[in-house]
Amino acid sequence: MTRVIHTGDTHIGYSQYHSPVRRQDFLDAFEAVVDDAVDDGVDAVVHAGDLFHDRRPELRDLMGTISVLRRLDDAGIPFLAVVGNHESTRGGQWLDLFERLGLATRLGDEPVVVGEAAFYGLDHVPVSRRDDLDYAFADHDAEYAALVAHGLFEPFGYADWDTETVLTESDVNFDAMLLGDNHTPDTAEVADTWVTYPGSTERASASEREGRGYNLVVFDADAAGGDDRVEIRRRALDTRPFVFVSVELREGEGESRVRERVREYDLAEAVVHVEITGEGDPVTPAAVEEFATDEGALIARVTDRRETDADGEVDVSFADPEDAVRDRLDEMALSTAARDVERAVREDTVPDANVRETVKRRVEERLDEEADLDAFEPVDSGPGDSEENDGGDDQSNADESDAESDPAEATDSDPASTDGQVSMEDYL
């Protein structure tokens, strides 16, 4: 019997709501998975991509991750992983660095055998390049085979990848596909193969209302009844509480009614989302947010979804002023390179004096990485195709995304002077 933890979409380094506390929450959630792995003595931890939220994580996030991985290594538990779309480049990966340090194994077309199971990897591949895939995997002699992959696979929500094609065209008969990218946990059977998502380990979006967790996958050749089987069990994680308050205002009701509803909940150290519908008097979102934080909330955000005589139905979100910008960008057929430029211009962590150099550097990086110039082709910003988008419930990888994870370098020759920002090339 072989028991592995299947996790993914940890998004370490994500400063959700511009909060350093939330940034730490994402690392803490990953550490909690590793704590469970060590305590339970599993045979491996399998990570299905998007270990980091950004392909240029800051030094503190790298050091925190290395510290957690060392605990696994000290316990003799291998860390097997693939690369997700948030980390994806054509050059080296941070996962390669961890492999050089002896802390991880990057899965690919050669089997990595752990106990009775052989594990293979399929990094995130953009839709435009999938027709070139041949799904050629080397043979193995283990009882089971599992493919670890990052993408939006059928039959789950927002799918753009044909799971049956992967399974039927592969050289290996897989008993399980252990997936990442969709933040909603789910399991299905496709072509006699178990296909499963563990979901994200922390809420990267307010749409991810259900509790977070991971999968425990058991490969048991000696199962009761003599039949080989793969068993997938869901395990919960104790993460930052999110509180969702819905308030429907009747005529004559206003801010006092909203406060009354908010007071009904335990807000201690929680992220609080207040949604206002109905009619009623105008409400000042900032006042409600201040009230909620005074009541103990870590963070409070208000969304007012009401009709006005002037404009008809409006959907105004005060959860993050970037939402409207992001929605508009998603309607535009921007190339990957154009999105890099857009982020560099808009990021509040890039000093105005460094914007020009940052844009220049990012375009040059894309030219180096994308020899076929695919990154400069307009793309349809559908679910999972953008570096900023991911597989959450509403397909907004992080509907509170602050795009702050790529501060400009002070100089090209001194990456250490970038307030913690380093490039992988300085390590490899």
From TrEMBL:
Binds 2 manganese ions per subunit. The active site is at residue 86. The keyword Translocase does not apply. Its cofactor is Mn(2+). It is an enzyme of class 3 (hydrolase). Mn(2+) 2 binds at residues 50, 85, 150. The keyword DNA repair applies. Belongs to the MRE11/RAD32 family. Homodimer. Forms a heterotetramer composed of two Mre11 subunits and two Rad50 subunits. NCBIfam families: Mre11_Halo (NF041030). This is DNA double-strand break repair protein Mre11. It comes from Halorubrum sodomense. The lineage of its organism: Archaea, Methanobacteriati, Methanobacteriota, Stenosarchaea group, Halobacteria.
